[in-house]
Amino acid sequence: MSVDLDEEEVFEDVRDRVDYPMRRLFAEYGRENLFQFVIGFVSSVAARILDLLPPLLLAVAIDSIFGEQQYSLWLVPQSWLPESQIGQIWLTVGIIAAAFLIGAGFHWTRNWGWNSFAQNIQHDVRTDTYDKMQRLNMDFFADKQTGELMSILSNDVNRLERFLNDGMNSFFRLSIMVLGISVILFSMNWRLALIALVPVPVIAFFTKKFIDVIQPKYADVRSSVGQLNSRLENNLGGIQVIKTANTETFESDRVDDVSEDYFDANWDAIDTRIKFFPGLRLISGLGFVLTFVVGAFWVVGEPLGPLSGELSSGAFVAFILYTQRFIWPMAQFGQIINMYQRAHASSERIFGLMDTPSRIVEDPDAEPLAVEDGRVEFDDVSFGYGDEPEAETIVEDITFDVEGGETVALVGPTGAGKSTVMKLLLRMYDVDEGAITIDGTDLREATIPSLRQALGYVSQETFLFYGTVEENIEYGTFDADREDIVEAAKMAEAHQFIQNLPDGYDTKVGERGVKLSGGQRQRIALARAILKDPDILVLDEATSDVDTETEMLIQRSLDKLTADRTTFAIAHRLSTIKDADKIVVLEDGAIVERGSHEGLLEEDGLYAKLWAVQAGEIDELPEEFVERAARRRSQVDADAEAEAGDDD
Ligand code: ADP
């Protein structure tokens, strides 16, 4: 399986389903922020128009105040204008000052409009995407790498924000600029305007070429930076292995290699970029020189063959100032197109994620699960991970029932399917065949929150959220009193060590917090389940990480906890489950034995052998069991290999 996915390839499967992502973005999220959009747009137009005024007034000043022409302003009746030169100067200066002042106001409202438009949308998109994503079924998270999902929720959303803010802002600013300046230049002198605009198509052509060339180079850069990050992340995670295996030099060389790939890819892109921008400058410079020469000849009245003409010095200055401002925006359009394309790809990925269907779908007629006795029945249940019909069946024909209040233990070698059976009960996955019922209600007919509320689950892999110990115990219950929390912690044999932490129940744990041992984490998770007081309890190797002594102590509390509660327990240490009402022995995804501890010992099958090994009565399992386990193992490995082969 490749770790360093090119981000363009991520979610290829779902991207195809997303039509017109940008249109959808505006339809679904833009509408709510229409006010900000309108403010941004109107202010952009007004600010630009005001920006374009000063050179025009400068031209008027040169020609009429300092020159010979009559003082006149566009759209203003002649009778309103002052006669005296000083009056004209003050009026001109006044208009220019007002243009700057009002312009500054519009610049502010423009930025307010675009920024709030972009910020609101990025916030809404991110929270919506997260909300949809966390409701997807577990298969999805097993398939996708965390990094991929993080990159959508952070990079892609940020890229959208950048486009909505900078991109759209620049787009309108530049469009108005180009349009406004063209109108002014053509109305002043259309022939010189044509000459001044000669570089425009040339620049447009080169910009297009530049984008075509640079785009794949940027893709290379992104992919190599991804590889570099994966390598660094992997090495930092495995630093202990690197040290103990004495492979520092080997790893340094590997980092050197990927860093060099990144260097090469980046340099290739930089090389193109640093040639392009001076090139643009050259073209616009040539245009400038051309306009200057022709304009200057016209001002002084020198003939220039077929290009002869005339021009006032004021108009000449205005032309020079406007062409300067005109050329650069043309080159920036390329960047905006680039931003748009990236935003397009990002919203494809975002909507692709949002549109991913969940395999676990709640029946529209589902009703809240009402647990009375807590009787659970597995009826001929079969299941395999993965969507494909040919996916290997992991558990087959599982049939057993548990009366309300009983404790059932699932026992068997690793990989037998015990956890899978429990995940089906939690409806992390739906059964392929058969049915699971709680008090006669098929799980698929109950609402998902009510089902999860009824079940308490403590697994081998305990996860603590960043926060205090108390918050972690309370997680999912939320309105518990400190007293109840302490009570639950005591039952889970966690109270004592919690009290010894620097801040007791207020000690921060989890990432960046106090590090707890595996056993301590398990006890907190157990306290969480005890506090929740669920109708049905699932303990999947819940005490595997605690020492035997603590386990014995916890066991006493657990006995109280499970006395009148339907409980499923998976445990390797068989001593912890020998008192269970029922023991179901799984091997190879099928039930091979069932009964009580004593009954199973008498049967002298797999359970009896496992028990004998743990009790130290025999040294190892008889050949037949070991052989079966080995066969199973190699089959799993072969499957995994075949799957990896498919991915390459
Ligand atoms: P046990 O709990 O008895 O050790 P599991 O139920 O965890 O066994 O696993 C049973 C089989 O299912 C194993 O072969 C394992 O590789 C496979 N398996 C478990 N989880 C997944 C998954 N998310 N996707 C694919 N295969 C899985």
Q: Could you describe the 3D structure shown?
A:
Keywords: ATP-binding, Membrane, Nucleotide-binding, Transmembrane, Transmembrane helix, Transport. It is a multi-pass membrane protein. The protein has three domains: 12-354, ABC transporter transmembrane region fold (Up-down Bundle); 376-616, 3-Layer(aba) Sandwich (Rossmann fold), CATH 3.40.50; 623-648. The chain contains 21 helices and twelve strands. By secondary structure, the chain is of the alpha/beta class. It is elongated. Adenosine-5'-diphosphate binds next to helix 12.
Topology (SSEs and partners):
Layout: H1 12-15, H2 21-30, H3 34-65, H4 85-134, H5 138-143, H6 146-188, H7 190-196, H8 199-237, H9 239-245, H10 248-300, H11 313-355, E1 376-383, E2 395-402, E3 407-411, H12 418-425, E4 433-438, E5 441-442, H13 448-454, E6 455-458, E7 467-468, H14 469-474, H15 482-491, H16 495-499, E8 508-509, H17 518-532, E9 536-540, H18 548-562, E10 566-570, E11 582-587, E12 590-595, H19 597-603, H20 606-615, H21 623-647
Parallel strand pairs: 3-10, 3-11, 6-9, 9-10
Antiparallel strand pairs: 1-2, 1-4, 4-5, 7-8, 11-12
Helix pairs in contact: 3-4, 3-6, 3-11, 4-6, 4-11, 6-7, 6-11, 8-10, 8-11, 10-11, 15-17, 19-20
